[in-house]
Amino acid sequence: MTAMPGEFPAREAIAPSCLAERILTAAAEECTLVGVKHITIADIARRAEVDVDSVYEQWRSVGELVVAVVIRDLQQRIDAMAKLIRAQRTLDDKIVEAFASILTRCVWMGRPLTSRVTSAPSTALPPWLDTPAVTVTRS
C-alpha cells in the first residue's frame, strides 16, 4: 500500500534540525555541569552559541528542554540496542541480547547526567521532584 502525499509528515518534520541538536547537546552538557536544578535557558543558549529566542522557538521551558534531552538519550540507547539485537543470528540469541542490553544500557549507566542524578540527586533534580511521592535511591 502506498501512502498518498500529505498522509505522513515530511521527513524534515521528523528529523531534528542541526540547531535543535546543538541546543539539546548544550542542555545535556549544562545538566551535567550544574545539575537540572540550576540550568537556565540563557546558559543553554550561550553554550549552544544561539540566541535565547532560538531556544524558546522550540521549547517553552527548561523542563520541556530537559525532557527532550532525556528522550533523545533514551532513543540513542534504543537505537544501539536494536542494532545489537538485529546482529544476532538466532531468536534465542536475540532475546538474550535484548535482556542484556536492557540491563547494561537502560539502567542509566555511563551517562554523566544520569550518574549525577543517582549520586547527588539534591543537586541534579529540580525542586518539584523533591516530594514524598517521588524518591530517588542510589544503587
What percentage of residues falls in helices of 4 or more residues? 55-70%
Number of strands: 0
Judging from the principal axes of the Cα atoms, what is the shape? Answer: elongated
- The ordered H/E elements are HHHHHHHH
Estimated share of beta-strand residues: under 5%
Q: What is shown here, in short?
A:
With 139 residues, the protein is an all-alpha fold. It has helices spanning 11-14, 18-34, 41-48, 52-56, 62-86, 91-105, 112-119, 121-124. It is built from 8 helices and no strands.
Description:
The protein has one domain: Tetracycline Repressor, domain 2 (Orthogonal Bundle), CATH 1.10.357.10. The protein is 62% helix and 0% strand. The chain has helices at residues 11-14, 18-34, 41-48, 52-56, 62-86, 91-105, 112-119, 121-124. Helix 2 (18-34) packs parallel to helix 7. The model is unreliable at 1-16 and 128-136 (pLDDT under 50).
